[in-house]
C-alpha cells in the first residue's frame, strides 16, 4: 500500500520540531499529505496551580487572572507552532493540514487521529533514559491501540532524514513479519535496506526458514537489500540491533513487539522494550 497520509504529533519541545521536519521529508519523498497535530492541554505545573487555586487559596479575581494567563500561554505556544508548521509546509512544498485540538486526554486524541492516517510519528525515550515518561506512555498506547504503524523518534534525535536507509530486525516471528509488512511502503523507496538476524542457526533449529528467504523476498520490492548475520555476545539484543543499524548509517529501525500477553509491559517483549528504553534512532514497532 502506498504511503499517502502521514500524521505527526507535535509538542513545543525541540524534539517536536525535529519530528515535524522528519515527517515533512518523508511526506515529500512519498508524495503524501502531512497532518500535524498539536493538543492544547495543561502542563503538570499549570494543573497544580489550578488545583491549588480551586482549594480556595486564591481570591476569585486572582483565580480568573490565573485561568486567563494559562489560556494566553496556550494560545502563544499554539501560534508559535502553527508558524513553524507553515514554514515547514512551504519549505517542503507539501499538501499539509494543521490540527490544534483542546483536550486533557492526549493519548485518546492522538489515537483517534492516528486511526485516520497511514502512519503516525511520535516522540520517545531520551537516549540512555530508563524512566517511563509521558512520551513513552503515549508511544506505547498508540502501539497497542491505534491499529496503525507507529514510528517513535528519540526526543534528542537530530537526523535529517527518515526511512532513506532502513534496518530490519528479523527473527521470523509473527510480530517481525507484521512490522516488516507495516514498513513495506517505506522499504520500497529506501536507498538501502539491511536485514539483521541474531543467532540465525538457532532460529533455523526452531523451524525458521533461512534468512536468505526473506532477503530474496524483499529484493522483489527493492534492489538494494543486504543481509547482516550477528552474534550478540553479552550485549542485549536491542542494543546489538541498534549498534548494527547505526553502523549501516540507518535512519530507521524496524522491529516487532511481542503482542500476545495482556499486560503491556510484558507484551512489549524484551527486545522491543530494550530498544525503547535506550532509543538511539527512530524505530517502527508493530505489535
From TrEMBL:
CDD domains: USP-like. It comes from the Bacteria. InterPro entries: Universal_stress_UspA (IPR006015). Belongs to the universal stress protein A family. PANTHER family: STRESS RESPONSE PROTEIN NHAX (PTHR46268), UNIVERSAL STRESS PROTEIN UP12 (PTHR46268:SF6). This is Nucleotide-binding universal stress UspA family protein.
